[in-house]
Amino acid sequence: MSNETATSDDTIRRSSGPGQATVQTATAGASAAVGFEAEWEAACDSALKGLDLHGAPDLLMVFVDSRYAAHYDEIITRLRERTGAQHLIGASGQSVIGSSLEAEEGSAIAVLGLSLPGAELTPIAVDPQSMSDDVFAPLQDGPDVWLFFSNPFTIMTDQLVAHLQQLRPEITLLGGMASSHSQQQGCAVFIDDQALMGGAVMMGLSGVSVKPVVAQGAEPLGQPWIVTECEANTVKSLGSRPALEVLQETLWELDESTRERAARNLLVGLAMNEYKETHERGDFLIRNVMGADRDSGTVAINAIPRVGQTFQFQFRDAQAADDDLRTRLSDLRDALEPDEEVLGALLCSCNGRGRGLFGEPDHDASALSEIFGPVPTAGFFCNGEIGPVGGENYLHGFTASIAVLTAGR
């Protein structure tokens, strides 16, 4: 039996079971559901039954467990025909995500239907064999926000993201890289009626408010430093001191408990806005430490720093990741206008999160619903997540990248 709550004079929320939620405002609507079944037909039917849509959706987001790989085409066709969706986008996943639910156990299909009156949707399919400028022509004068999914085994996603950023610096990209239980086999992306085993897909959204939340899950260590010498991806000196010496000193000054936490997953943060007086968690692009050289005192990272950039060592664990996600979500909630309602959400979470990081099920999806209420949500566990930091789009790891759609009440 469904539970119905009036959150304002003209906003209705419904939650009828794990993975299911509906929001209906005066101008827009969203509904999400997850179908759990061993056979693809039954999973499709279960997901469709859980949707509570008023008419055909303008956009259907679809995420399919890769154990259904032999039937991607049939799944996409059935879901689009049964819902009458104008457009469809999605990807395969090692596991899929629904409202308050992360389906890490068993096969499932997650769907999110969105009714967006007045919105314009622009689909693009990117073939890795023919990436001419004509493919990206809709990007130039099109929407500012694009949902983005790629097959990482067939296209260099980080290079593509950088290329799109160069073509249109002001755009926002949100999404992730498809994943599969069998690595490359079964990895796919979906656009409208196509299930593609290679390339990338994009859907531009205009006429609808989309707010990004990128939680990299890192906790700053020590104090920020200025890069005073670097070459390629090697940091030679920080504050005119050998970088390795600064790292060792930073770790030594920590209490024993924090030092043990940091040693397990040491990271670096590169500040994205040098004009801020102080830099806090969330102001940095987080990247891994690749190694260090005791003789030269240098530290190698998987990014290209620049002289004069603010740099701070960081670490990641379950507590830091939980704090970061809840802070980012709470900041967005507090920034909403009084007449602004969260309509739905796309949640792209790293394969390295979930139970493996937090030791409990449904962490990221539950945090979203705890802060915003029963938000219709769909997504998947990715091979890498895409979202903006400091106004520029990047490919991330161990991150939760969330597109939060809002509408007026």
Structure in words:
Helix content is 22%, strand content 42%. By secondary structure, the protein is of the alpha+beta class. The chain has a nine-stranded mixed β-sheet with strand order 1-2-3-4-9-5-6-13-14. Strands 8-7-26-25-29-16 form a six-stranded mixed β-sheet. Strands 10-15-11-12-27-28 form a six-stranded mixed β-sheet, with helices on one face. It starts with a strand and ends with a strand.
Q: Keywords, please?
A:
six-stranded mixed beta sheet, 409 residues, alpha+beta, nine-stranded mixed beta sheet, 42% strand
Mean pLDDT: 93
Largest sheet: 9 strands, mixed
What percentage of the residues does DSSP assign to strands (E)?
Answer: 35-45%
The class by helix and strand makeup works out as alpha+beta
Distance between the termini: 25 Å
The residue fraction in helices comes out at: 10-25%
User: How many E strands?
Assistant: 29
In terms of per-residue confidence, which ranges show pLDDT below 50 for 5 or more consecutive residues? none
Number of helices: 9
Radius of gyration: 21 Å
Q: What's the overall geometry?
A: globular
The strands making up the biggest β-sheet line up spatially as 1-2-3-4-9-5-6-13-14
Question: What's a quick, concise take on this entry?
Answer:
By secondary structure, the chain is α+β, with helices and mostly antiparallel strands. It is built from 9 helices and 29 strands. It is globular and about 65 Å long.
